[in-house]
């Protein structure tokens, strides 16, 4: 452990961030160093490699993000997200080390875990499988599979049955270990997409629902459903986390950072407790223990407790600034909080709060599914969970830029690289040589997922489109002026759609949209649009539908004169005459949409498996690279253009590669 200390709110925020975000997660040589040497040689004027030549640069992003955990005896079994395969690591508290790993071969990650006796049950997502880890033998067995996209949450009942909350649709499942059979308990709130929190006692299952909040009690014997959420908070977004005791339920509600505490026998006896940290929006983990409700907030990362008897709320500290707490557990009188790559430990007897980096204690790090990629010419940023890996092109070394979130999009202007970070639709700035990124602003306005970044040289503005929080309507467009420090958000831009891609020039931002608004909200439009937004007058100028039935316009790039080029989710590339506001040519290129870059009279794009070169005069395409099979998080293929326009950066599997191009 790092030395015990009493965390005050402000001190913890600065100390933990400074101590941990600055540390490089890893440094590598080998293929990455070779790539650095190749890049340095190219800058010295050596002959250009043939177009399509691939140089291996090693794993794109190496991480060890956690999704949940469960104690059996003195061992904390913690599950990973985004690795291949995912693992459950056994952290022995007495030995202060991770002593074993257990592979979970299917699914993108582990969000849900619970225990029944000495068995730990593990729920995966995309695909949704249920595994049993017998902690006495170390045997892992897949015991069930479910049709829903995510298993978000799990709990066991006193008689050893396992209950799961899923999404798309929001449903509750029961698994009986005695018989090996599953029972569908249906949708607690028909029409809602998510069951995000769950608890079970001898008679009932309690399900927390979103994107419109419900707290539903399901009779385990009859299946009868009863709404417990008080009318005064029925307009909230989610009950996304939950804790339970013999007498009480406590649920974390979004997006006002509230905790609902009610008596199970008399739900009308309830309290609504507001998390107090500035800007707090979410209550992300809840535990009732020894007369207190412990809970964690976000985005601040603050750790709180509420005394049931006195109704007093206390701020206990900030274990790690802005970090997401996935689960709270009680063990041997202490409270453990599961965060990405680490665990914090609170001792109620002494008031001390410790932070345990599980990677330093042996938890497996491995290549994850990347989320974004960008090159400033000297390094390549690869965004993932909890930050970005920075690949130095001169030395081949890799360091970690820690951020409490997920960089979804990046852009370099001068010596500053801007990162659009999920959640909170945050904009960060990173200057070359600095160990940390600086938070510029959070978008607010019920936005959480940045989609693209652009710079307009005429106005000096950084333009960032964002997708709303699950269940909410209308994406937004935010404009940041580095010169004045102002940050302004406009919503809606294109009514009932999200702006997904952007390109800006001469005071106008050109916008490609996505028909999906907040996740879980069925689209009300059918076709993505191309629109123009005046950055000076701050108003929408026009909008068209360039590709019939396209779900999204995934990328936009300027050509010469008045031409704008875009790629749609259908795999079609289109040419758009900005003067005539008309699509002039279309070309079926890839299997689906991805990034598109124009360099002079040619363009390059990807569908995640191939990289294509497009002759813009003849408007024909040919693949220059095949077989990438890029394992992008969410299946959204990315591509980065080196500022020299002599190379692209892509992902093959989960490895970063440099692809030589002529740019002409």
UniProtKB/TrEMBL annotation:
UniProt-listed SUPFAM superfamilies: DPP6 N-terminal domain-like (SSF82171), Quinoprotein alcohol dehydrogenase-like (SSF50998)
Transmembrane region positions? none
Fetch the Gene3D superfamilies from UniProt.
YVTN repeat-like/Quinoprotein amine dehydrogenase
| Entries under InterPro entries matching the protein | Host-pathogen_enzymatic-act, Quinoprotein_ADH-like_sf, TAT_signal, WD40/YVTN_repeat-like_dom_sf
Q: Where is this region: Disordered?
A: 22-55
| Entry keyword set | Signal
Q: What is the residue range of the signal peptide feature?
A: 1-27
Compositionally biased tracts (Low complexity): 32-46
Signal as a keyword? yes
Q: What is this protein called?
A: WD40 repeat domain-containing protein
Protein species of origin: Nonomuraea rosea
